[in-house]
Amino acid sequence: MIQMFHVSKTFGKDLEALVDIDLHIHKGEMVFLAGPNGAGKSTLLRLIFCDELPTSGQILVNGRNIVRMKPRMVPQLRRTLGIVFQDFKLLRDRTIEENLALVARVVGLTTSQTQHKVAQLLTLVGLSHKAQMAPYKLSSGEQQRVAMARALMNDPLILLADEPTGNLDAELATDVLRLLFEVNAQGTTVLVATHNLKLAEEAGCRTVFLKQGRIVGEWNGGK
Amino acid sequence: MVEKLKYLLTHALINVVRAGWGSLASIASIAVSFVIIGIFVLVIQHFNALIAEWQEQFQVSVFLDDQITPLQVNMLKRRIENEAAVKAFTFTSKEEALTSFRRELKGQESLLEGLGDNPLPASFQLKIREEYQSSEALKGLSAFLSRLEGVEDIQYGQEWVERMTRAERLIRLLGAIIGSVLTLGAAMIVSNTIRLAVYARAQEIEIMRLVGATKAYIRAPFLVEGMLQGSLGAALALGVLFAAYRFVAPTFNVVSPLFSIGASRGFLESSMMAGLVGGGAAIGALGSSLAVNRFLKM
Question: Domains along chain B?
Fold first, then answer.
């Protein structure tokens, strides 16, 4: 589903964010990308959703070479992805329902489809009763669950989660992890970037270790 | 399509309301620019009306030699008839000129008693087509007419024509320069206020980008918002101008009778008002387009 061949990314003249990355993630797989802050995890995710272009190397997402992709095709690629951020990126002046509906409009769902999808996902993340609330009135854990629901609005082929538990305590982190497993169980490929090695270990999934922009090891999740 | 348009308009309206004071400030700034633009348009319109009025009344007097024969008068008539610059003309004989003069001196006819012979010349009064009323064309016409047999003098207020032509050119030039500067200024105001709105909604734009919205999709609500603000600003300016015009114009009529000629034509023509509101919308769209483009990087 995601294939990276000798991918490097340099910012400016000599800031090497990623160096010679070779990574293959299969369809339906759930993979953790672990490493300390500044290891290049977020940059790697941003390359996948075309927020940055690699300095060298090739990246295939769902069989398409996104490095050679024309800029006007980028929105189409992004409509097949779901992205979750550490800081949730929820709009404060909209209700939870409106935050989710924003994605539905972009991907062209009708009003009734949107209502159905929003209700379905809020049930999945256990927040149906808070649909009309503003995000800032929710706890961090709840906000992250809303962010996940939003990322699933377009039925993504791939879910990219950048430090999804970074702002949560251990119990809430486990909740989010459970949710990620549920999404993965439905066939979505999941790639999670985290500096929390314990979380990756707890998940028992394939984990790729990054350090200073290089892959320095891999753990198969004990399988 | 209809649903999309409805969505765009509703959301542009919601965004204008949501931005609150920011929107009001933007609409007010556009209104101020358009009041100034409107004043210029109004002045130019009145000046044009004044010139049109003047052009309508403008005539060239061709005074004839006292010794001219009826045959020569007829020949002159034919030459004048065939002249392209002449729209219409009337002939005033020596006797008619005296009668008319007497009428003007009503009550003081005794002044004419000592005159003896009629000293007033016969003349032709020529109405000139507008396109021939420039200083250069009139000089040419005057030179041509003065060479004709039986013509003694030509009068058309040469100095006035030259002054009016110069003033007309100056006002048109000033109008074009000031109009362009103000239009650019209004576009920059809209651009800056919308840029603030864009920054305020940076996260929304970022999310839209990341979930696969195209540039056009992101830009459209801002464009509509800009158009809405621009046209509202221009309409507000027209309202203010109209109120001021109603209040101020009568004062001007007393001060300057010249102004009353223009003022009698009324407020801005409806096509001009529609043009100003449309211009406001266009400037709003341009301003917001500038603001969003600077911000939108895919």
Answer: 2-54+163-295 (no CATH), 59-155 (3.30.70.3040)
